# Entry
Amino acid sequence: MTTYPLETLDPAESVQVLPRHLAGPGTVDPRAVWGFPFEEGWPFAQTEEGAAVAFSPCLLLQTTYDPKAIGPSVGPRGAIKPSKGVWTVTAHWRPFAPPTWKVGFDATTPAEAVHDFHRELLALYREHPNGTWLFQPRVADSQVYAPLLARGWHHAVQTDGIQTFRPPDETGGLSHQYTGKHVSTAREPVTAWGSWGGFSDDQTAAWRAWGGTADDPEWRARFTVKTPARLVGAFTSSLASAQPLQRTVESLQRTIKSLPVQGRRSVRIVTPAGKQLPPGSHVAAPPAQVSGRTR
# Structure
């Protein structure tokens, strides 16, 4: 058995990867990720640099992709992190009004989970084209975290009104601010946005999700307090799915190198027969200083 099986594969070869929240972004294609019926009058525009925007025909929904929304930065471990793109979604009570709720995903978020969020968004929109269900939650918050608990994630509740859900290996998380001054049922618009995906600070988001370590995540997602729980649940259900994601060996190697040691040990390649490599078979690349090894 080889300790680092990715080294034996062609970089262009595709593999099946679990868990989903550590699989990397996959293919970043706005048209494919959004999946809107553009032939039915949904406006879409994209620049040569890759930035894209789409609207619902009624202009109540707006989605954007900015490939350089976040500039280069220095991570907690001192590594220089390159520019990162951001997906954003905003919903408006009336066209051109300030957004009532907003969602942001790092472009390093698994594209399949971002797509599943937008697929549910489109379904919700089509059920009530006048927009009412976009602003009136119809499901319990438990729909958001139940899929995670079913996959073995554990749950902790703090006295400050925040509950957190983490996988057994602590390589990701979901936090929910379920009470406090920022949680309201009023229809006030969201007006304060900051540098990351339009969020001014952590308190703006009722739901926050991430992959990797909490202090230096591989990706982040945030959902403001008015975001329908049904949409957040579509995202978490996708993350918790046992269906592996397809990635090229080359892209998976890039993702793994950016993960902490525990995250590298958690990534698994699933064989075509549906069997996982044994837990001792890490897919991470060996340290650079190792010049040789026995097989």
